[in-house]
Amino acid sequence: MWLPIVVGLLFGSLWAPLSAGSVEFGDIDLSFYALGSWPRDQPIYIQGATVDASMKPGAGAGIKVGLFPHVTKNMLGLELDSSVHGGALSFLNNANGRNNGIGHSNLLVLNTMFNLVLRYPGETLAPYVGIGAGWSQGTLLSPNIRGRDDKDFESARAFGHQYLAGAQIMVGPKVYVFGEYRYFAANYHWEGLAVDFRAHYGLVGVGLRF
Q1: How far apart are CA 152 and CA 76, in angstroms?
Q2: Domains of the chain and CATH, by start
Q3: Per-residue pLDDT tens over the stretch 55-107
Q4: Could you tell me the pTM of the whole model?
Q5: Cα separation of 38 and 41, whole Å?
Q6: Beta carbons within 10 angstroms of residue 33's beta carbon
Q7: With b meaning 16 or more CB within 10 Å and e meaning fewer, what string describes 149-168?
Q8: CB 84 within 8 A of CB 109
């Protein structure tokens, strides 16, 4: 319940300066990053059975735009964050009570998240922490899973959330580099298959501050 209220206050804080004709209302950060994904091995649910699964690491990239109003002393901000990364899963396929060998599939994950970020506005070093929520899409690519009507690909959308911590280092008047850790969670449900996806993310990137 608190997140919509905070978002409303942040955007509301922008309206007064803009309506008064002020151009300087806060910091705007635009950044691009490379992403590494290390999912936790989780049991999965397939065709009435729960089996152990192995989740493979993946790599990807993303972009985020952040707004830090002056009214919060540039400490509290809101980010729109979009990323994509690959991965894979494999498991012992015991569909219908029989051993059907190893099932596996490549996995493509697309996330669009809103992050609430609290940072220390240092001139050179700016550490930060945050929490985010939004939509995630998990897509099975070329699945090889016996006992279900496989398709070349199948997508599932789910609510996702994440926790993050990182630091920005200014390398120029408007340019910074950053590193970030995230813990991400979403539950995907495809036809006859469900995965509670839990992953550690490592990010490195570069950004511009306006």
Answers
A1: 44
A2: 2-209 (2.40.160.20)
A3: 999 999 999 999 999 999 999 999 999 999 999 999 876 655 555 577 889 99
A4: 0.83
A5: 9
A6: 23
A7: ebeeebebebebebebebbb
A8: yes
